Amino acid sequence: MKKIVILTGAGISAESGISTFRDSGGLWExxxxxxxxxxxxxDKNPEKVLNFYNQRRTQMAQCLPNAAHLALVALEKKFDVQxxxxxxxxxxxxxxxxxxxxxxxxICEVRSTTNPNLIYNIEYNPVKWGDTCPEGSQLxxxxxxxxxxxxAIELAIKICQTADIIIIIGTSMIVYPAASxxxxxxxxxxxxxxxxxxxxANSREIANLHxxxxxxxxxxxxxxxxxLNE
Length: 230
Ligand code: NAD
Hints:
- The chain is 31% helix and 19% strand.
- The relative contact order is 0.19.
- It has 230 residues and is α/β, with parallel strands linked by helices.
- The protein starts with a strand and ends with a helix.
- It contains 9 helices and 9 strands.
- The longest helix has 16 residues, at 46-61.
- The protein is globular.
- The mean pLDDT is 93.
- Nicotinamide-adenine-dinucleotide (NAD) is lined by residues 9-11, 13-15, 18-23, 26-27, 86-89, 104, 170-172, 174-175, 194-197, 200, 215-216.
- Nicotinamide-adenine-dinucleotide is lined by residues 9-11, 13-15, 18-23, 26-27, 86-89, 104, 170-172, 174-175, 194-197, 200, 215-216.
């Protein structure tokens, strides 16, 4: 069975009503990243950070997977599929995909501030300053913030090294180390990029690149049907 590795970013969830990161009208026009998504922000004003993620959790509770998330599930009939997502939302899970690695954490999880291995699923509930884990430490969102290491990156690199096909959907490929992952695939691996922005695939030095300039809800079902019928 051929292995397909799918790298997804905020753009795949845009049509489900979750703002992207850098598009006009995106999240960071409304919030200063340094105030809510950086480890220094947590040290400076943890209540503001908790509030920001409580709002994101409430918003994401209402969101449903779109045609792109749903189409990817069908690939599992014919391929060994591994999704590596930068997204913190749970739309791949809601759609029914099986193998999902969240590089930057999950919105529905919190963890102990002193022991990163103590992780709890809180679904869509808020977490407040003063909420502690059973060992007595403050809980924080289980999100990888700017300024922090990405614990899953080594595993993600190993997965990309074994890819027969790579699909990249809805990411500006700006946030490192996630943006470097495609370069760990064997040199002539076919790489499909689905993104309405033509600049998103530029200057990537990818030998076997197929750019699909479409929104995810259109481009992904088309690509999935092509791969299933090949
Ligand atoms: P980004 O905002 O930097 O880039 C979004 C990309 O999606 C752009 O290239 C844009 O052209 C593309 N796009 C916009 N609408 C699209 C659509 N309908 N279909 C396909 N592509 C579309 O996002 P990124 O590269 O994922 O940035 C990474 C950071 O953003 C990560 O750290 C991630 O955790 C965070 N983030 C996640 C979410 C989420 O969980 N849904 C939302 C916002 C930000």
